[in-house]
Amino acid sequence: MRNGMKSEKLAWLIRRHGIEMTHLSGGSHIGAVLSVADIIAVLYANILDYKPEEPKWNGRDRVILSKGHAGAAIYAALAESGFFPVEELKTHYQNGGRLSGHVSHHLPGVDFSTGSLGHGLSAAAGIAYALKKDQKAGRVFAVLGDGECDEGSVWEAALFANHFRLNNLIAVVDHNHMQSLDFQENTLEIEDFGSKWRAFGWNVIEINGNNHEELKAAFQKAKENGKESEHKPMMILANTVKGCGISFMQNDILWHYRFPHDGWEYDCAVNELHQTKPEGVEDPYTPEGIPNPVLPTESDDINNDHTLTYTWKTTYPEKMRRVEAKSGSGEREYRV
Ligand SMILES: Cc1ncc(C[n+]2csc(CCOP(=O)(O)OP(=O)(O)O)c2C)c(N)n1
Ligand SMILES: [Mg+2]
């Protein structure tokens, strides 16, 4: 059962662990971890039924993090929920460890390995189908990336879920409008995203995916989905910000692959997180933050635009255009 930790605390810890894990291992995808942290936190703190002491409990809700490159987020949530020791998080990406960079089913609490994008929704739909056929309890949650939805297999699974009326299947798209090298609009246009899912027979709720109240309400509605006469699978389109929570990582494509290096990158990330630390949460790595942080200098690469195509696109989409970075201040503004 859930351990009673509030979702805001769990989200903070997921972000703090994510910074530490990628820093220690030199592992990628911190932007994706920060983006999905609130979705994962609300699931584990408020929504899912599970038993950490009995990970394969038959009545459990299943979660597939289809955007498996954000594995650090699910590892942190599982450790903080009692599935394995928090100490083990330090073995992320280490040879011989269980916490591979992409999600691994060798860990208690993980039902399906991911990392090769485009497979999670199919697996989730298959499990939901089997549960329904066997008249078993439990719902299946699949968390996808928006760039991942470029994969054709996602839409095959969407057809399947509608065809078999899988109202025990709840999908969430972490809609941060970015993928690995650019904004989504510049890679493969996907809007009107909600209409596409509706046309495939899904119920769609669109929310702010970094807002816990909106997430709780959407998940609650989704959980009740199968109880009434409603037979459609449920899609929660969660609008998020990639890198959410660390100002210099937000909406900056650099942080899809870059990890927080020793020096100002790590120090400033940790201290910024401390500014939003909920009361009663203890930072397991740097309880007081970093007292004498290294700060970025004028020559550090903090205010550059790393969106590769920005330099040659003449008609950059108005909707996503980055407003001038304020040079030297470390502050940025974005028009999203
Ligand atoms: C089949 C496949 N192709 C390419 C990759 C490499 N890759 C890793 S993350 C990523 C971008 C994913 O973007 P999105 O789904 O939007 O996730 P986000 O990081 O924005 O949450 C890509 C292309 C992969 N993991 N799997
Ligand atoms: Mg994305």
Explain this structure:
This protein is α/β, with parallel strands linked by helices and 336 residues long. The chain has a domain at 7-239: Thiamin diphosphate (ThDP)-binding fold, Pyr/PP domains (Rossmann fold). 33% of the residues lie in helices and 9% in strands. It has helices at residues 7-25, 30-47, 71-80, 120-133, 152-163, 184-187, 193-199, 212-224, 254-257, 264-274, and strands spanning 62-65, 140-145, 169-175, 203-208, 234-239. Strands 1-2-3-5-4 form a five-stranded parallel beta sheet, sandwiched between helices. The longest helix has 19 residues, at 7-25. It is globular and about 60 Å long. Residues 308-336 have low confidence and may be disordered. The protein binds thiamine diphosphate (TPP) and magnesium ion.
